[in-house]
Amino acid sequence: MALKSAMAVTGVILVLFLIAHMYGNLNAFAGQEAFDTYSHHLRELGEPMLPHGGFLWIMRVVLLASVLIHTYAAVALWRRAGRARPVRYQVTKRVQRSYSSYTMRYGGIMIALFTVFHVLHLTTNTIHPGGRSESPYERMVAGFQPEFWYVTLFYVAAVIAVGFHLRHGIWSALATLGINRQSRQRSLNIIATVIAAALTIGFLLTPLSVTFGLVE
Amino acid sequence: MKDLYIEGDEIRDEKAPAGPVAERWDQRRFSAKLVNPANRRKLSVIVVGTGLAGASAAATLGEAGYQVKSFCYQDSPRRAHSIAAQGGINAAKNYRNDGDSIYRLFYDTVKGGDFRSRESNVYRLSQVSVEIIDQCVAQGVPFAREYGGLLDNRSFGGVQVSRTFYARGQTGQQLLIGAYQALERQVQAGTVEMNTRHEMLELIVVDGRARGIVARDMVTGEIETHFADAVVLSSGGYGNVFYLSTNAMGCNVTATWRAHRKGAYFANPCYTQIHPTCIPVSGDYQSKLTLMSESLRNDGRIWVPNEAGDTRDPREIPEEERDYYLERIYPAFGNLVPRDIASRAAKNVCDEGRGVGPGGLGVYLDFADAIKRLGRPAVEAKYGNLFDMYQRITGENPYEVPMRIYPAVHYTMGGLWVDYDLQSSIPGLFVTGEANFSDHGANRLGASALMQGLADGYFVLPNTINDYLAAGPFEEVDESTPEAGEAAEAVRARIDKLLSINGNRTVDSFHKELGHIMWDYCGMERNEEGLRKAVERIRELREEFWQNVRVLGENEELNQSLEKAGRVADFFELAELMCIDALHRRESCGGHFRSESQTEDGEALRHDDEFAYVAAWEFGGTGEPPVLRKEPLEYEYVEMKQRSYK
Amino acid sequence: MNITLRVWRQKGPDDKGRMVTYKVEDVSPDMSFLEMLDVLNERLILEGEEPVAFDHDCREGICGACGVVIDGEAHGPETTTTCQLHMRSFSDGDTITVEPWRAKAFPVIKDLVVDRGAFDRIIQAGGYISAPTGTAPDAHASPVPKADADRAFDAATCIGCGACVAACPNASGMLFTAAKVTHLGMLPQGQPEREARVVQMVNQHDEEDFGGCTNIGECAAVCPKGIPLDTISQLNRDLLGSLSSGAAE
Ligand SMILES: Cc1cc2nc3c(=O)[nH]c(=O)nc-3n(C[C@H](O)[C@H](O)[C@H](O)COP(=O)(O)OP(=O)(O)OC[C@H]3O[C@@H](n4cnc5c(N)ncnc54)[C@H](O)[C@@H]3O)c2cc1C
Ligand code: HEM
Ligand code: HEM
Ligand code: SF4
Ligand code: F3S
Ligand code: FES
């Protein structure tokens, strides 16, 4: 049971990060300077109390810890579910469960793979379609050029997966934290859908705009 | 008639205290010996059954410190058939300030039992009813409440005060779950050992005392013996002898019948209660009948077409071609006449060929007027769940087409004879709930059975059983005790026999045929000729059963045909005794109409001078006639009156 | 109508089991699903084949004994118990697949019969109010607001059938557990044991090899008694409450 709470709490942390991250990404529309400044800012936040990059590192530790705990809990629950039904049904039918709720696990794996790629690509600068650059903005713009359509496609797919994951994830986290009530069920479901959709669209905007040349 | 049975000596209830009726229960509690709490741990009790009567007894005895072993044939104690009771439970709380009192509940129940119950027992039942409600509420039973947060009451079955407590249409379920939870709490505490999927197949009597049971583990087939200082049977009713009834499929007489064969008297076996508002049979594959709450008669009007064989759509039958027969014959009570009258009237019109629906076994229960008068939303609010249930089962929409109803066997008042302490004629064998012969006699009312089950289990038995156990622990017994070995061997032999016949008919086909005989000749209306014919046919059929039944598989597995076969075999023997009991009771009383005993205008006629007694039957030996032992009933407080509903 | 049944047959707990196909002819639309199985069984017996074992008792939707998975849905296509499902919900010529509840916590005993003892043990762990017989105050001593009483009642209608477990992709028994936690937690009588109850019941639930709940909601969708999904949320709320107040130890 502790697993479930851990998953919900870390899930919520990750959602909050994503919201902030999306806001950051949208800075791309304000041009290279704004975007780089934002990126730079991230590293200066908290100075002089924290050393350069200190906040970012704290954030990274929290994020990493969250992802690890979240993944650990997810895997543990998955294995438990597997053990709980050793013989499968010959016929199964979904009665009400949504596409998003039953793809949570596969979606999660997909997101994990994506994040690894993504961090190597845009943060550590290890993979660099379109050439290295010290400016995050340039790295990003270079990566999403039409000739690297497969990079964009991968991002798009990943972001949609995130959307699905969150559509059920947010609802689920709220239920796990005991916030769901009969009377609120509808509104909570709507909130989950809205946040998930907003994040999906928000994230898609940046790479797609680059690919289609709206941002250079 | 005497060719079928022998008359033995009269019997008396030796334990019933004398004195003013209101003080008798106190007196008995005071005179009963006590068991010191330290000794209780050394004393053990077997409780067969986990319905209201059994679960409440096992939980209370466990709490008191006895070592309890509890048994049920279902996979969980929570599934006992008490779960199906819908209507409600009576209690003399007088929360409505409408003039109710313990005395009034007592009075109504004695009358409702048609003067065939004991005043002392009924009075105790009314007294204890008050505590039952307190107990259940404390356990978390969610009775219906009003906006002020207090408990709601309704009037039930034609009673003039509102004393019925209910939990929507699921009172039995909620009461049982309360008792079940109390039982599970004792299982956790280690005072009760629960044995689910165990069927009791024999009673072990050693030195004249009930000392244990033989039970079959229904999963492995193992024949086990269990021992204790006392045995309590709370195994429910035997309405399934009719095959079609409102009882659960597994309800059986085996536990009590086996005890009867070992010497316990079986009292008033022919008393059954027939419920007027069940969903009719739709085909011969039908396996059970579903009851719909009688509250439907408050607003629905009952009718059949004037002409026999009228197969028109009921909505096309004009008003003047309909016979609202209850309103016509009983203008004062109309559709609200007691259960037996409503049931018999329905049977009569169907016998005249005016019945409706498949096989002509049904009458209309029409809400068209109520919908016109109250509006559909009001009807929906009151009866919505019943209408839904009806629609689910029949596929017809009762808001549009009148419902069809027919009477069905519902509750059995007969059972093992017990004294005031609930002890049977075998020392150490106690019987509670529907399994004993009911406190309420030839009952025609509702909401009394739940009350009796819980009264027996929570309050009466835990007090009276001490008087017996105070003399214990009794001599050690185990598998090596000859009586135990013999009992287990008898069970094995019977099972082997059933498995080896390998004939040409299924168990169900025999059961169905037996049910037809019982319904036709020992149902609502009986007469000497029919009952004699029934006895003969039951004997023939039983003979054939033991030659020609086919039970496949083996004992060492879950074998549902084998379980059924054992139960049906006992039903055959019970059925014969029921017919003999019905035959000897040449009067109309309770739910039963004896054609030879009616008033000039065709109403039931009791014969108090001849039949004011409990008919306790002693087993006469296999193939031998049973022995009738009468326990005379005396009425000091309620004057015996013939009833009239005209 | 004529129906083709594919039924899970398994001789005993250790047998591997397999699907067997039977044809059932002349099925009336007014038969219940179990009556249709009765008809099949009568025929099998006469043909010398052992009848299909299935659990059932009241046949009116209240005892919770019956329950099989029909074409992938617990209790079949209607939201009701298997015994209250009628053949008019199917069409002539249909092939119907019938399987037992599948969960490690509900081992198969034979054919379609499973052992649901785990549910009783969850109740033993704390699904009760300790009220020794004879100690109760007057029933009117503590009024219960109607709304609370109604919610307690809604949760109390659970029949312990196990369909929620059968339908849950995680084979979790959380709806059953939550129904009891909610029933007792809504009543004033249930308060003293509230925190300990939820912790003990959930621990027992986890020990019985049920899966964890990830709020899929399939359970509530098949529940024949309409136990609301938010009871699980109420359970979670109580659980977090008792974890933080230290009742967990
Ligand atoms: C549909 C219906 C509606 C009713 N409505 C009302 C109502 O509104 N009000 C009212 O007062 N009464 C009502 N009654 C009557 C009332 O419900 C019963 O009389 C009462 O519940 C019986 O309780 P019990 O504990 O004696 O037996 P049951 O609840 O029948 O329990 C019998 C127990 O014995 C066990 N058992 C049986 N045989 C064996 C065996 N051989 N070996 C091992 N265990 C065995 C079973 O497993 C079960 O646990 C109704 C009855 C029915 C059928
Ligand atoms: C598709 C749109 C996205 C764009 C354009 C984008 C862009 C970026 C950029 C530019 C950085 C580097 C920031 C820096 O180093 O200053 C970054 C970092 C990161 N992004 Fe994204 N991102 C997107 C989607 C996502 C998604 C969907 C996730 C999570 C599932 C994610 C998780 C991360 C993480 C974990 C970091 C590393 C933060 C750090 O440690 O510095 N991103 N992203
Ligand atoms: C590392 C890869 C990930 C995996 C394997 C994974 C897997 C899972 C799984 C299996 C669940 C439970 C399914 C359910 O509740 O139905 C879940 C829930 C959730 N996930 Fe993820 N996830 C991952 C990443 C993420 C990320 C990056 C976020 C946020 C941005 C996130 C947010 C959530 C939320 C909010 C929940 C709901 C928690 C709850 O059920 O209480 N997950 N995840
Ligand atoms: S919650 Fe519903 S599905 Fe689950 S056991 Fe209770 S009644 Fe059955
Ligand atoms: S379907 Fe299963 S995951 Fe939870 S909400 Fe129901 S128990
Ligand atoms: S048999 Fe009782 S609920 Fe189906």
Structure write-up:
The complex is a heterotrimer of chains A (216), B (646) and C (249). Chain A has one domain (2-85, 98-211): Up-down Bundle (3 helical TM bundles of succinate and fumarate reductases). In chain A, 72% of the residues lie in helices and 0% in strands. Chain A contains eight helices and no strands. In chain A, helix 1 (2-26) packs across helix 8 and helix 7 runs antiparallel to helix 8 (185-211). Chain A is globular. The relative contact order of chain A is 0.13. Chain B folds into three domains: 6-271 and 413-469, FAD/NAD(P)-binding domain (3-Layer(bba) Sandwich), CATH 3.50.50; 275-410, Succinate dehydrogenase/fumarate reductase flavoprotein, catalytic domain (Flavocytochrome C3, Chain A, domain 1, Alpha-Beta Complex), CATH 3.90.700.10; 482-611, Fumarate reductase/succinate dehydrogenase flavoprotein-like, C-terminal domain (Methane Monooxygenase Hydroxylase, Chain G, domain 1, Up-down Bundle). Chain B has 17 helices and 22 strands. In chain B, a hairpin with a 2-residue loop joins strand 7 (198-206) and strand 8 (209-217). By secondary structure, chain C is of the alpha+beta class. Chain C has two domains: 3-109, Roll (Ubiquitin-like (UB roll)), CATH 3.10.20; 116-245, Alpha-helical ferredoxin (Fumarate Reductase Iron-sulfur Protein, Chain B, domain 2). In chain C, a hairpin with a 2-residue loop joins strand 3 and strand 4 (73-74). In chain C, helix 2 runs antiparallel to helix 6 (194-207). Chain C is elongated, with a radius of gyration of 20 Å. Chain C starts with a strand and ends in a 5-residue tail after the last helix. Chains B and C meet through helix 3, helix 5, helix 6, helix 11 and helix 12 of B and helix 1, helix 2 and helix 3 of C. The complex binds flavin-adenine dinucleotide, protoporphyrin IX containing FE (HEM) (2 copies), iron/sulfur cluster, FE3-S4 cluster (F3S) and FE2/S2 (inorganic) cluster.
Summarize the structure.
The complex is a heterotrimer of chains A (216), B (646) and C (249). Chain A has a single domain, classed as Up-down Bundle (3 helical TM bundles of succinate and fumarate reductases). Chain A is built from eight helices and no strands.
Terminal residue distance of chain C: 59 Å
The count of domains of chain B is 3
Q: DSSP helix count of chain B? A: 17
The CATH superfamily of the largest domain in chain C is Alpha-helical ferredoxin
> Level of helix content of chain B?
25-40%
